[in-house]
Amino acid sequence: MTTQKTSATPANATPESATSASTERTLVLVKPDGVRRGLAGEVLRRLEAKGYALAGVELVTATPELLAQHYAEHVGKPFYQPLVDFMLSGPILAVVAEGQRVVEGFRSLAGATDPTAAAPGTIRGDFARTWDTPVIQNIVHGSDSPESAAREIALWFPRL
Ligand code: DAT
Ligand code: MG
Question: I need a surface site. Which of 32, 86, 112, 158 has the fewest CB within 10 A?
Fold first, then answer.
């Protein structure tokens, strides 16, 4: 007996990642506050418990150049330099997660940007709070659209 693939598979995709044409990817970062507090595993656990697949996981140290591209939309804002300094303050766990509507799904898991307002049950609502710092420290980053995800994954995982 032979089995047949029902969808076109890009030549460079592994069978595991080529689940269907609607499979989406997002970039998740466990920021330095999350790694310092030992929450990297908790973030991976929540992604997996929700049912998303991990397509890439790497502990990385950012650079000012990488962050200028990653946070291009925030260059020039008052919190930009504090944000860069914070993102350079320790290692980051960079993750590519995969699944239908994962961009929206991870934003929902992460919760609101402001950790005081973030709903309990979300990563930011459960593990982050407001401090007297010039930049909000909120444990995770998640891409805000499929277009942002593609751009950000190319920055953090040039080989993926
Ligand atoms: P998000 O990370 O929810 O997509 P964002 O892209 O607007 O939020 O901002 C990037 C990060 O910068 C955010 O996670 C925390 C910080 N930040 C955003 N707005 C801020 C503000 N007004 N003051 C201080 N830090 C801020
Ligand atoms: Mg953002």
Answer: 158
Cα(103)–Cα(46) distance, integer angstroms: 14
Is residue 145 within 8 Å of 44, Cβ to Cβ? no
Residue nearest to atom 8 of ligand 1 (CA): 113
Per-residue pLDDT of the chain (160 residues; tens, 9 = 90+): 444 444 444 444 444 545 688 999 999 999 999 999 999 999 999 999 999 999 999 999 999 999 999 999 999 999 999 999 999 999 999 999 999 999 999 999 999 999 999 999 999 999 999 999 999 999 999 999 999 999 999 999 999 9
Query: Where along the chain do its domains lie?
Result: 24-156
Would you state the CATH architecture of domain 24-156? 2-Layer Sandwich (3.30)
Distance CA 21, CA 108 (A): 23
The model carries a pTM of 0.90
Site to probe by mutation for ligand 1, drawn from 79, 114, 147 as the one with most ligand atoms within 8 Å of Cβ, is 79
Q: How far is residue 96's CA from residue 29's CA, in Å, rounded to a whole number?
A: 9
